[in-house]
Design goal:
Strand order of the largest sheet: 3-6-5-4-7-9-8
Helix content: 25-40%
Number of helices: 5
CATH superfamily: NADH Oxidase
Number of strands: 9
CATH class: Alpha Beta
CATH topology: NADH Oxidase
Distance between the termini: 41 Å
Oligomer: single chain
CATH architecture: 3-Layer(aba) Sandwich
Length: 224
């Protein structure tokens, strides 16, 4: 792919693009590249703390450094959240009636990205930095990553519309707990948040008429 510059045209390889956006992670320095799908590094299949130790360390944190998440950590995090973990295409978190109603979006300084588990890739959704709109606490605007859990109501045909948020919230909670355990294992900070103006955030994200935001979850390094 090519990136335009003031002095002409500079060739940029996919590896350089990935490194430029994800390794400095979450920097707003490359808006011209924000329209490119980013194939994440393969998630690591070994390492991490034992489950019991991770459970002991699991906690919510509300003070964050603006330190960037390395690309490998971001890759492992998204896979742990709701990635594909077997040849059948099933995921790391369970889901209601075997219907995948939750999509995971990543709100970062360089825009909003849709996590595509099948390709293990970040697909651009918006170039705007909307982190401050993902919650009502001050820290959400400067933390490097806010995950947004978006539900597809149209996939829940057997559930009355007034009950769909409840079922979707359960699935979002499963994903959120995966993120908690990953963060405990990796020394990251996180908090699952319900203090979100979900209707306004959905409008900002220009979601479909049957889609809605359930919760958000902040991830980063603790400031303490």
């Amino acid at each position: 792919m090519k990136r335009a510059s003031m002095m002409g045209v500079t060739k940029v390889t996919r590896r350089e693009a990935n490194a430029g956006i994800l390794a400095s992670a979450i920097v707003a320095a490359a808006p011209a590249l924000a329209a490119e799908t980013i194939v994440l590094p393969p998630p690591r299949s070994t390492g991490g703390k034992p489950l019991i130790e991770a459970l002991k360390l699991r906690r919510s944190t509300r003070e964050y450094s603006d330190r960037a998440l390395p690309s490998q950590v971001l890759s492992d995090l998204l896979w742990a959240a709701f990635g594909v973990n077997r040849p059948s295409g099933d995921r790391t978190a369970p889901y209601w009636r075997h219907i995948m109603v939750i999509d995971v979006y990543a709100a970062m300084a360089d825009g909003v990205w849709f996590y595509d588990p099948k390709r293990h890739a970040l697909v651009p959704h918006s170039r705007d930095d909307i982190r401050v709109q993902t919650g009502q606490q001050d820290f959400v605007g400067t933390a490097p990553l806010n995950l947004i859990y978006v539900a597809h109501g149209e996939r829940m045909q057997d559930v009355p519309p007034e009950e769909r948020r409840l079922y979707a919230s359960v699935d979002a909670g499963f994903i959120g707990q995966n993120v908690y355990l990953f963060c405990a294992s990796e020394g990251l900070a996180t908090v699952f948040r319900g203090a979100v103006d979900t209707a306004k955030l959905g409008q900002t994200m220009q979601l479909g008429k049957d889609q809605f935001v359930t919760f958000a979850q902040t991830v980063g390094y603790s400031r303490s």
